[in-house]
Each structure stands twice: as structure tokens, then as C-alpha cells.
Amino acid sequence: MEETRAKLIRAARQAFAAKGYSAASMDDLTAEAGLTRGALYHNFGDKKGLLQAVVDQIDAEMAERARAVGSRAGNDWDGLLAEGVAYIQMALEPEVQRIVLLDGPAVLGDPAGWPTQNRCLQTTTRTLRSLIAQGIVKPVDPEAAARLINGAALNAALWIAAAKDPHSVQEKAVEAFIQLAGGLLRTR
Fold this sequence. Notes:
single chain, 0% strand, elongated, TetR/AcrR family transcriptional regulator, DNA-binding
């Protein structure tokens, strides 16, 4: 069953990236995976369920990549910023743009409610709680600050994905994100 799911996700990921969700044919997709429509419906319910699985996979990969970038930073604060910037920069990747940032919200609704986003929120909240305890960040509610930081990164990525010139928007978005987040720092 896991092998079947993996085949369908892999085929859908390729089809959604190449053609977009709307244009991707379920018959072509299942044929590419060497499976039937019945396997798709049994494992995912429908095309939308399959998109959710693909978005979850890519979004989880994005979070892991951002964490890896953050872990190489010099300290917790720089790590937090590096993760946010890495997430924003991933919006330039065609697969991320089309599947996660354009088709995902159009079909699945607000990304802020996706399971992977909630896990990122919990991680950011823990990091901010630690930074507050260390006296690096002002004493604010860590969950509120985490929601705003994560929301800024997500909205920047959505803006980039929808932009006519994503590269110029990305530069502006990263600069603004860093300045905005910097407002949380405690001045000494």
C-alpha cells in the first residue's frame, strides 16, 4: 500500500509541476504510475486528496531544508532569520511556486491551516520562547510573534510566486522580512 501511495504521489508531483493541478489528467497520472483510478480513489479519495498529499510532501521537504539552513547559522536568532529567508527564497523554485504556492491555496485553502505549517509554527514558537528567555527578543507572547514571523514568510513566498518578476520581488521581500523580524530584538 505504501508503494502504491508513493507511486501515485511521485506521478502526481511530476504532473502537477509540469501542467498544474487543473490540467493534470487523472487517467494520464495513474497510467504513468502503472496503476488504476481505483488505486487513486482508494488511497486519496479524489484528486484533491492527492494534491494534499503532494503539498504535504513538498511543504515538509521545504521545512526540513529551511531547518538545515537555520542550523548552520551562528546562533538561535540568526537561525530563525535564516530559516525564514530560506523559505521565502524557495518561492523561486518552479515546483514550489506552482504546486505549493499557487495551486495549493487555490484548491486546498489557506496554507496557514495546513498541518506542516502548524508544525513550523510550533517550532518557531519554541525558538522564540528560548530567545525571550535568553533576553535576545523582547518579552512578547511567543506564539503571537511566531504567527507573525511565519505569516510574513508565507505571505512573502505567496507574493513572489504570483509576481510577474519573482526575482525582484524576492529581494524586496527578504529585506522587509529581516527588518520586520528585527523589530522583535531587545535593544541593549
